[in-house]
Structures are given as C-alpha cells and as structure tokens.
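User: quick one
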Amino acid sequence: MTTRFLNEHGRRRLQRVGQYVVSYGFTAIWLIPFIGLVATSVSPFREVIRGWWNVDLSNLSLENYFGAWNHTSAPISDGVVNSLIVTFPATIVPIVLGSMAAYGFLRYRFPARNTLFFIMVLLLAIPQYTIAVPLFQMLSDMNLINTFLGLIIMHSAWGAPWVILFMRGYFSTLPKEVEESAQIDGAGPLSVFFKVVVPMSWPGMASVFALQFTWVWNDFFFALITIYDHDMMLATQRIPLMRGEFQVDWGVLTAAAILTTIVPLVVYMTLQKYYVKGFIGFASK
Amino acid sequence: MTKRRAELAHAAVFVVPAVVLVAVFIVYPALETLRLSFFDADDNFVGLQNFVQVLASDDTLNLDRFPNTYPAWGSLIHNAVWILIHLPVTVLLGIVLATLLHNLRGGAAIKGIIFLGVVIPMIVGGVLIRFMFDSGAGIVPNFLEAIGFEGVVTRSWTAYPQTSLMALILGSILLWTGFSLTMHSSGLSTIPKELYEAADVDGAGTLVEFFRITIPMLAPVTTVVIAMTLLWEIKIFDIVYAATRGGPGGSSMVLSLQMYNYAFRALEQNLAATVGVLLAVFTGLVGIWLMRRNAKEVNG
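Assistant: Done. Structure below.
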C-alpha cells in the first residue's frame, strides 16, 4: 500500500536531521532576545537606537555597566548591596524554622497536627496580593515600613509553608534508625535534629536554598510595598526607575537588568541540579 | 503521661516558631483581607457590595469594548485572554521541545538557555519584553517592517493599546516555556524505554509513538504544569509593571496590578481587598483541581 521512497535507514536519518533543524530553530528564537540584551548593554547609545543588530563591533565598551552601577538617581550598586542584606537572612531564617517545623510535623504526634499541616498546604495557593493590604497596615503599625527587617520577616513567613512541605517530604526519605540510635545514646531532640538529621539532609537543603534565595532576590512586589526610601530600594526596584524621561536609555537599562540577573544566575548555575530538583519536588507536591 | 508531655513539649519547640510566624504574617492578613472585602471604608458591613462594584467596573470587565474593539477590556478579561493563549502554547511547546531535545546532542545546553526565562527576575523579564517590542531597539517591530508589515505592529508594541497586551502575552510565553520544558524533560526520563522498543517492533512511527506513548505517559506531569502555569498567569504582576504598568489606558491591566493600584494609589483598601479575595478564589480553584486530580491518580 505505502510507497516508500526511502528505506528504513534513510527515513530515520531524515527524521534526525529534521529534529536538529527544528530544535536549533527554536533555540534561535530563545537566544536572539538574550543576545540582543547583552549586545545592547555593551553598545553606545547612539548605535543602540538604530537596533542592536546594527552596532559597530569596534565600539563595544562597558560604559553602560558603569552608568548603571553608578546611576545618579537609582545606582544598581546600592541595590545589589541592599538585596544581599535582605536575601541572606530571608533565605536562612525560613529554612531553619521551616525545616524544624517539617521535622516536628513528621516525627511527633500532637493535637491538630494534620489540620495545621493542611493549612500550610492551603497557604501555598494564596497570592501575595491577597495579604498585601493588612500586611502593609501591620508593618506600618510596627514601624517596620522602610526597614529591611520588615521585608525579611515577610519573606521568612512567606517562604516557611513551602519549606515545611518540601523538607517534610525530604525528611520522610531518611532512615529513622540513625536518629533512634542517637536518641538511645542520650542526645536530646534538638541535638538529634541539628547533629544527625540536618547533616544527612544537605541535598534537600541545597534545593530549598537555591529556590528561596532566587525567589527573595527576584521578588519585586514585597519590596515595592515595604521599601519607599530611595537609598534603601533593592536591585529589582531600581530597574523600573531607570527608564529615561523622554527616551529610554536601553544601554543603561539592559546593563542594569543584567547586573541584577547575575546573582540568581550564579545560584542557578552552581546549584543547577538542586535547583531543578527543588522545582520538580515543589511543583509535584 | 510524662513521656507524652515531654513529646508535646519537644513537638512545640520544633513546630511553634514557624507556625506563629505564618499565623501572624500570613493567615491573619489573609483573613483580614477577607473581612475587609465585606466592609466599606467606614467599617460598615456591606455584604457583597464591594464585589458587585469591582465586577461592574470598567477596570475589571469592560463589555462595551470586548470583543468589539481593541483593549482596554478590563483586567479580568485580560487575565482570561492571557490564560487562553499562554497556557496551551507553553504547555504544548514544553512537551514538543522536551521530546525533540531528548537524547539530542547539545540538548541539555538548549534546555538551560530556555530555562533562563524562569531564573531571571520577572522585573527583568518585563524589561526584556519592552526591549524586544521597541520600535527602535527591538527585534520584533523591525523584523515585521523588514518583511513588509505596516502600521501599529511596526511601532513600539508596549506603547499602543492595540498591541500592549499581546506583547506581554507573547513575551511571557518566551519567559515561561522553560518551566514546562524542564518538567516534561524530567518526566520523559521516567518513561520505560521498553515501551518505545515494543512500539518499534510493531512498526509504529515517531508520531504514533508521540501520541500513543509520550503524551499519555507524561499526563501526570502535564497536570502539574497546567496547574503551576495557571497560578503563574493569574498572579502575573512584575512583567506588566516593568513593561507597561497596565497601560496605555488600562489596555494591559491585570488583576494583581489593579489590586495594587486600588490599595496604594487610589487608597481604596476595601476594593483592593476585594480584588485580593477574587485572586485567592481563582488560585484556590486551581489548587483544589490539582489536589483532586492527584488524589484520582493515586486511587486509580
């Protein structure tokens, strides 16, 4: 019935070539915008407004990066420092508190345990915007608006439920016998947790660290409603302030965007395995 | 008895700090938002009046303009249109690309590049969209002009109401496809090779194998991807803020940004809370759907 002008081998070969062509075509679609972003950031303004594909390669410079770093109204340098000040504690605190709670939910029986855990799962579906109005009011009553502490507390509370969910799943894969033998040796529950359970859990902790760190660094909304003082603004908050008044200075703006992206990019590249595992584990729970 | 009491004390040490933190800074504000949505600015109970006001507002649903003319159509319709285009495209592209890149030389690097859109701050994603669709510096309008298009698509897409929403939606496909791709790629690696080998023996072609083996075997992953993508689309904020601020003329306004404007620009806390509740209802529905689907899969 079928008229085959190619034999089995030829058909496979053709299919393979097609697979490469389509794959690299799609890759180009994704690569071009990022290449454009980088090309623009190293080109002089007068060339960029004609399109980055027209830039003269002999004029490349890091001038825009210095411009963004030392920007007069929204220097990215201060933004990066402020973001680091917020991101480290806002990553460590929810990981410590959330992991402890996860262990408590897994290993101990106490009243309302399942209800409390179910509430934690429910909270994962709530958008940030749903808590914004009262949260702003509370922080302002506590004099925590325009403070890094306020933002750190918000991120810690916001990160805790998913850390609990993720780490509870991770802890449940650990052998119970090691903990039991440590208990028999007379170690208290906290020292069992920190000296026995935590050291066995580095891969899980690395996943949680990678995701929570990037989430806090990349966050814009919580920072937007907490930090109003220009000097205290985080890196992500400074980017929308960088559009020029009449004409967008794409060179400086793209340089600022890239400078802000470097930190999560480094986290992703160094912890790639854990990052993706965390994403998959988090998403499929 | 004392042993039981000691166990409770130990449990409290582990669980109470996180639970208190979450109760004070998330559960309480969420309940307070729910309360505010049923009260007016003078704290009088008004029933569903805020919801009626929000849903009847042109900010939310503008049925005079939809679907007869270009946006602004209202934030609710914008979010719905966003989902209608973005959800099928990102989910399908993820499945197709995962299959194409599976066992392809350089496939891992390509996946890494496409996943960049998920790693970068969304505010940077917004800048990237504005940049791509800029009439001077952007590739899209210039490319369209070069191949003979005229009119609004050759100008800055984010500056005109006819194109601003579409620019955001198309750009967000670029940013989010990496999620669907990565999830489906890890799903592919769990499909037993024997299934394909058996199909090869039966003489099934690549397309038949794709539809009869790959897609059904990936279904549990696809469910999760659909749910996470819906949540992402409902909560979309940063890229809109960075690229258009919902404009021009509300033509790319979305629910989250509308909530922000009500709360922090118009200082209408109760209306903001109402939009906040609507958002939670939508994300809650997605959460319930996902949980029911997962329960079904576990029970067979």
